[in-house]
Amino acid sequence: MSLSISPWKYGKRWVYSITYDEALADLHRFAIPMHEEYGIPGHVEVVVGQMGEVRNIGNSSFNGYRHMNADELRDLLARGWGVGNHSWSHEIITPEMVDREIDQAKEVLEEALGESIILYCSPGDNTNMADHVLEACRNYGYLGAMSLTDALNLPGDELFWINRTALHDHYYPPFYSAYDPYRNIRQAQAVQGWIIDYCHCPLETAVHPNKDCSEAQLRQRLETVLSEGGDSVWCAVPEEVLSYHLMRRHARIEAVAGDGPEDAGTSDDDGEMAGGATAGGATAGGATVGGNISSQRYRIVLPELPDQVPYRSLTLEANVPAAWCRDPRVTVEEQELAAEVVRPGVLRVTTLVRDGTEVEVRAAPRS
């Protein structure tokens, strides 16, 4: 028998998130109602120094559009959306500017929203993913940083260079492209990837075709994600996915039989498990009745999990004898949970986990 952690929450095959740079109020025209219709949460990146103001940044195509204010951002949080810091000024961040762009922006946004901000999103281009910027993000308590690199994110990837897919009408010359609602989906399905789309403010036509899509193209993309994803896609805000990633990375599972450990699995420096287990999981014998195994207990420990992690659920999979699948019994912290039989001999359950949480898997009693 063994207990392990699914690569993604709920045992989903791949993950989809979508972000809107600048956090413009005109998202209420098309994007936000569309998200409500499809049940997919969104995420906005706030230029904190212009929060609630009409945009006035260099030669931006979005100048004249209003940035959301604190009340509007809190409304998005209540709808299940996420909010990230898109810097204070949307300028190129020099080493002398990190206190304002990374630290002050975070503090002001957190005070305005009453919510911890754990994600930084690079403004402009990847120039603002420079080493001194990412070092500041780590120092000031962020848990991840989003780039403008068009690629998938995998379960084991670096969190201070998170990739995003451009959801734009077409790309800048000389690398022209046509809008593709299927972009990166097939690869995400094949490699258990995490897609993060980014655009700005989809309207009847794209405000800037190299930086945005239209509302019709946005609808086509969301419909494609749902139709292609079916029951295999997990649609979530980046904060929730990031939290799961960190929970999975830090969790260690120890096998405990009866009142004492048996074949306990603990990690070594290479992330491999001792005692015949794999990283993030443990194998063990179990408590026996009349020579037959009747139950197995595990303890989940979370060494060095950052305090800022907001969402603390894990999806656990237990390999058990076939007889245990007839009436699955899984107890977490003495509370019995509904377990799903996902394939022969494998049970799955999603649960909140704290450091030291105990999980018991047992056979149903014979009547």
Question: What are the salient characteristics of this protein?
Answer:
367 residues, alpha/beta, TIM Barrel, 7-stranded antiparallel beta sheet, 21% helix, globular
Could you name the CATH class of the largest domain? Answer: Alpha Beta
Broad structural category: alpha/beta
SSE order = EEHEHEHEHEEHEHEHEEEEEEEEEEE
Looking at the structure, the CATH topology of the largest domain is: TIM Barrel
Strand content: 25-35%
Low-pLDDT residue intervals, each spanning 5 or more residues: 258-279, 287-291
State mean pLDDT (0 to 100 scale).
91
CATH superfamily of the largest domain: Glycoside hydrolase/deacetylase
| Number of separate structural domains | 2
What report would you give on this structure?
- 21% of the residues lie in helices and 25% in strands.
- Helix 3 packs across helix 4 (131-139).
- The radius of gyration is 23 Å and the shape is globular.
- The protein has helices spanning 31-38, 70-78, 98-113, 131-139, 185-191, 215-229, 238-250, and strands at 2-5, 14-22, 43-46, 82-85, 119-121, 144-146, 165-166, 194-199, 233-235, 252-257, 260-261, 282-283, 287-289, 292-301, 313-319, 329-332, 335-337, 340-343, 346-352, 357-362.
- The chain has two domains: 12-241, TIM Barrel (Alpha-Beta Barrel); 251-362, no CATH class.
- Strands 10, 11, 13, 14, 16, 17 and 20 form a seven-stranded antiparallel beta sheet that branches. Strands 2, 3, 4, 7, 8 and 9 form a six-stranded parallel beta sheet that branches. A five-stranded antiparallel beta sheet has the order 12-1-15-19-18.
- The protein has 367 residues and is α/β, with parallel strands linked by helices.
